[in-house]
Every structure is written in C-alpha cells, then in structure tokens.
Amino acid sequence: METTKTQFKTILESIGNTPLVRLEFPVKPTMLAKLEYLNPSGSLKDRAALYMVEEAERLGKLKPGGTIVEATSGNQGIALAMIGAIKGYRVIITVPDRTAPEKIAVLRAYGAEVHVCPNTATHDDVRGYHARAEQLLHDTPGAFMPNQYYSPSNMMGHYYHTGPEIWKQSHGLVTHFIAGAGTCGTISGVGRYLKEQNPAIKIIGVDAVNSLYSSKEPKEYAVEGLGIDVISDTFDQSVVDHIVPISDEDAFSYTRKVAKENGLLVGISGGAVLHVAMKFAQQLSESDVVIVMLADSGRAYLSKVFMTQQAETPAAKSGFKPAQERIV
Ligand SMILES: Cc1ncc(COP(=O)(O)O)c(C=O)c1O
To answer: Which of 70, 102, 186, 223 for a ligand 1 pocket mutation test, highest count of atoms within 8 Å of Cβ?
Structure first.
C-alpha cells in the first residue's frame, strides 16, 4: 500500500483531542474527566502555547532563529520548550521557586534556559518571575513573549479548540465545566464557547485561596497551576459563574487520595478540581453532566506531593483561613 508522510500526524498536530472518560465516583451526576495530561508535553498548556506561537509567527512577531521568553509556573514553559525544540527557537523560562523540581528538570531536558525567581506574593514585585521575564524580553534581540497572563490569545486557543472538542465529545450534554484557574485562559475560552452553545452551562474555576483574587491579603501558596494573581483580558469574567478557592492542604490531600483510591495520578490542580467537583456533585441530579479538567499528571509532583505528607508551604505554616466562595 502506498503511503505518504502527511498521512501521519506530527507531535504538534497531536496536541488536543485528549480522551474524555467517565469517572466512577459515587455521585448522582455523570462525571467526565478530560485527560489533558495526555497532551505531548504532558499538560493542557500545549494548546495555548502552540496557538500563541503560531499566531506570533503569522503576525511576524516571532521569526526563524528567534527567542521565546515566558514567565510560567511550569507547564506553559514546558509546552513552549517542547515547541521551541521542534521549531528551532531558543527558549528562556522564568519560574517562581515554588515550582516542582521535576518541572524545572523537564524544562532543562527540552533545552530551555531556566531562571528560578523568589516566590513573591504579587506579580508586580520586581524580584519575581514576571519582572525577570520582562527584563529578559527587553535585553534579548528578536525575543517574543507569549505573555500568557495578559494576552487574550491564550484564551482564544481554548475557544477555538478545547471548547468545541468538549462540546462534541460530551454530545452537547455538558451542564457543568470545572477547571483550575491560573491565567484563566481555560475557563474563559472554554466558557465562552460552551455558553454560546448553551447559556445554561455553568463554568466553575478553582483558585488558590491565597491568590490576589480570592484573598484580601494575598500570600504565598504552594498549589501550582491555580492562583489568579492577575486580572487581565485573558480572564473573561462574564462567562464564569463561580470561582471557588481551595487551600493548599485540601488540594494536596485530595490529590493524594484520588491517586490511591481512584487510580488517578493527577497534578495538584487536578486534585483540587476533583475536590470541588465532588462538593458540587452533592447538589446535582442524575441528569447533570460535570466535566473536570485534569490539567497535568502527578508524575510532575512526586517529590512535592507524593513523597511528603504536608503541603510544605510558608502559607500552610502560617495557619491562614480559607476565603469565602466568591461569585463573579
Ligand atoms: C496544572 C495546571 N492546572 C491549571 C492551570 C490553569 O490554566 P489557566 O492558566 O488556563 O487558567 C494551569 C496553567 O498553567 C496548569 O499548569
């Protein structure tokens, strides 16, 4: 049989179309999980990163031989590092020092240069990973910064791809969509698309309790992926029904629990999302269909979550109280 190369997908063409699987949790609604950790670099961030890089190429903002600079708590950087390795770009990533060592090792394995910065309470702190990325962008000729925290393109990747995928895979039956909220690109892009199909669908984001958004006094936190510390055009508040804050302790302990009891070795945001989904499920009926985003795998957090029994965070030690659920 004659074959051509283009009959087969490349790594970048394999991003997305992750499985949507039924979870057998003892609750009334149907619970479906989107296994985003099966993306090529291991997280949902492959989607936003590829969309932003290819848009920059189309607009001439990123040229052959150029450099990609980004501030990230890990996964956006890992996605960019993979894409950079495939497309031949230099990649420089700044991360806060709460980032799991496995993620930093993965960034370096893909050939990225990594700058580890102090874990600051706010994004505008000059010591932090954001300010460092801005400085590197300024100092590096031919550099492009996707700027996931501020660019609406982040959310458009989810609007054009993740949202339609979820609608199709759930046969239009989805009633609730629950995902971690960091940049808010996922909840905003998926939320906008799903609400256009059926305005009754509820969109729920899970935030770090100590983030700028959920706390009157933002503090450091240990969860990764979650944490709304910037409110920008990437966050379309009009399509989000609830933002639910979660503590480091609840997120870490539920992440450990679902690995042992349900065979779900997911990252901290996946554990947090499942914890919130189980609470929501108590008020729902048999006809509801809840979709949870399992953004990345627990393998990235073996040392931080699974080889220790505490949240191991300055915030956890300070004995903070969880904020109330906030409705936007
Ligand atoms: C593990 C994980 N969960 C959740 C999120 C949140 O996604 P978003 O930035 O689209 O809000 C991220 C983002 O980096 C992540 O890495």
So the answer is: 186
Distance in Å, CA 226 to ligand 1 centroid: 6
Q: For 42, left (φ over 0), alpha (ψ -120 to 50), or beta?
A: left
Other C-beta atoms lying within 10 Å of the C-beta of residue 121: 17
Same domain, 118 and 172: no
Is the Cβ atom of 269 under 6 angstroms away from ligand 1? yes
Q: Verify that 268 and 186 share a domain, yes or no.
A: yes
pLDDT tens digits along 59-117: 999 999 999 999 987 899 999 999 999 999 999 999 988 888 888 999 999 999 999 99
CATH of residue 279's domain is: 3.40.50.1100
**Beta sheet of 67-71, edge-to-edge order:** 113-117, 90-96, 67-71, 143-144
Q: Is ligand 1 within 6 A of the CB of residue 91?
A: no
- Pair (133, 64) in one structural domain: yes
Query: At which of 144, 179, 199 does a domain end?
Result: 144
Is the minimum distance from the CB of 295 to ligand 1 under 6 angstroms?
A: yes
Q: What is the pTM of this model?
A: 0.91
